[in-house]
Amino acid sequence: MSVLHIVEVTKTFPGGTNAVDSFSLDVADGELVCLLGPSGSGKSTLLRMVGGFEQPTGGRITIDGEDVTHLPPERRPTGMVFQSHALWTHMNVFKNLAFGLKLRHMPANLIKEKVEAVLELVGLAGYGDRMTTQLSGGQQQRVALARSLVLEPKILLLDEPFASLDQHLRERLREEVRDIQQRLKITTLFVTHGQDEALSMADRIVVMANGKTEQIDRPDVVYRNPQTPFVAGFIGTMNLIEGEVQGGHFVRADFTVPLPIADGPATLAIRPESLDLAASDKPGASVHRVTDYGTHGLVDLDLADGTRLKSMVAHPDLFRAGQGIELLPRAVAAYRNNQQIYRSSP
């Protein structure tokens, strides 16, 4: 069992800035949880506190029931992989991986066995004699992962490990890391600001903003049922429209949608894939631009007051700039006072 508990953890930097504010999270044995948020949301600071590289101002961190809140990194059962790889360039790959094992006074034959096994695991068998400077960025990141895994940590910490790689390599590596994590069943806390990484890798996503939790849920739930306007706007592409509810209808410019909530201001949320279009001569919306991505099209639309919306369509060739359009939402959500108050089914 390798269970991580973060209880009411706070980090306040000099000057009174709260980087993390009363944050709590339980990560189950073998679970991969992603901390997702924009720069400055506190996700990396939180990860560094779990790893022992930052000290919390308040709160408690336990691993398998042991309080590790104030232990230094070398005394915690954690392994951390940094964005910068942090490899020793004067050592070859084998020595990079063996260093931590030597500090544990492990016999040389066992060190060799463990290093070779973990290199095989990350797809770098036979690379032990190479200098780290001779490796590509992706290979260096595999070595950084192997260096953490060879120590057999209870908790694996990943701090935006793919951020410096190109998109194709990033996609391939995240699949490989997820496969390794599931094979080893190692409890993992992963930081990223990339939505695709979070949605494709995580068992659960923690969306953070201003040091606090906005929503914790499975990736599909976070995408399909965001609980706050921030989550709705941050995860994927979302049309967020400010308007008024009057007599059971949401109104913005000439755009109206039935909405069975009390009158007053509201924010309407519609995913582009849930916004159907039909040609129309009535006042409403018009096509601003059409982009054909091959597999689908994206239509940028303007309401009468200039509000810009997006719709995903199967046949972009049916639309042209300036065309009048009727908007036909298949699923909507509504927010008031920063909370979801209504959600329709598609």
Automatic annotation (TrEMBL):
Gene source species:
Aliirhizobium smilacinae
Tell me which SMART domains the record gives. AAA
Which InterPro entries is this protein grouped with? AAA+_ATPase, ABC_SmlMolc_Importer, ABC_transporter-like_ATP-bd, ABC_transporter-like_CS, Mo/tungstate-bd_C_term_dom, P-loop_NTPase, Transp-assoc_OB_typ2
Gene3D superfamilies per UniProt: 2.40.50.100, P-loop containing nucleotide triphosphate hydrolases
What is the official name of this protein in its record?
Answer: ABC transporter ATP-binding protein
User: Recorded GO terms, molecular function?
Assistant: ATP binding; ATP hydrolysis activity; transmembrane transporter activity
Q: What is one term from the GO cellular component aspect held by the record?
A: ATP-binding cassette (ABC) transporter complex
Q: Which GO terms describe its biological process?
A: quaternary ammonium group transport
On whether Transport is a keyword of this UniProt record, the answer is: yes
Superkingdom assignment:
Bacteria
- Entry's SUPFAM superfamilies? MOP-like, P-loop containing nucleoside triphosphate hydrolases
**Residue span, ABC transporter domain:** 4-235
Q: Which family does it belong to?
A: Belongs to the ABC transporter superfamily.
Extract the coiled-coil ranges from the record: none
Pfam families, alphabetized: ABC_tran, TOBE_2
